[in-house]
Design a protein that fits this description.
Layout: H1 5-40, E1 45-51, E2 54-60, H2 73-90, E3 97-100, H3 103-125, E4 129-133, H4 136-148, E5 152-156, E6 163-167
Parallel strand pairs: 2-3
Antiparallel strand pairs: 1-2, 4-6, 5-6
GO molecular function: DNA binding
Pfam family, one: R3H
Protein name: Single-stranded DNA-binding protein
Length: about 170
């Protein structure tokens, strides 16, 4: 099937529309979060980006640990509230990712390392390894790291106790 000049021109336009939509989501989220920071009398700078086909907003500042909470529970809730604010403005479901003081970035690094280390252990032993229960976000990071190491993984269990099982290459 041959592509036409119209098809070739439409692809960059569609990509520009997608990026513009995600940037709009980031702007809406930043406005919402800025108001929230003002109400809570917290100092924080906002950074808006588009990464991995989603809007990403980061809040950085002196001490924002209260916005992260224990094990990121407050951060998860804040992210959902921010997604709802975006939905209210756009009418479309958002996959926006929120980070506070690098909490998610650090967690992503640790989970990628866990996936790589576990894959190496499974490759060496030939035995499957089950990890502790994780959120869907955390499992995805581990699955990606295991795949990058050339092994296979799958999720098992039932929410909220779903976990990753890393399998040998021949399994």
């Amino acid at each position: 099937m041959e592509s036409t000049e119209e098809d070739e021109a439409a692809a960059p336009a569609a990509e520009n529309d997608r990026v513009a939509r995600l940037e709009q989501e980031g702007d809406i989220a930043a406005d919402y979060l800025e108001e929230l920071l003002d109400i809570a009398d917290l100092d924080g700078d906002l950074d808006i980006d588009v990464e991995a086909d989603r809007a990403a907003v980061s809040i950085v500042g002196a001490d924002l640990s209260q916005l992260v909470g224990q094990d990121g529970k407050v951060l998860e809730a804040l992210q959902e509230l921010t997604r709802l604010a975006v939905y209210r403005e756009t009418g479309e479901r958002s996959r926006l990712m929120l980070d506070v003081s690098g909490f998610r970035a650090d967690k992503r690094t640790r989970l990628s390392q866990l996936g790589a280390d576990t894959a190496a252990r499974v490759a060496e032993s030939g035995e499957p390894v089950s990890l502790e229960p994780m959120s869907p976000f955390e499992r995805k990071i581990v699955h990606d790291a295991v795949a990058a190491a050339g092994l296979r993984s799958e999720s098992a269990g039932v929410e909220p106790r779903r976990y990753v099982v890393v399998l040998p290459a021949d399994a």
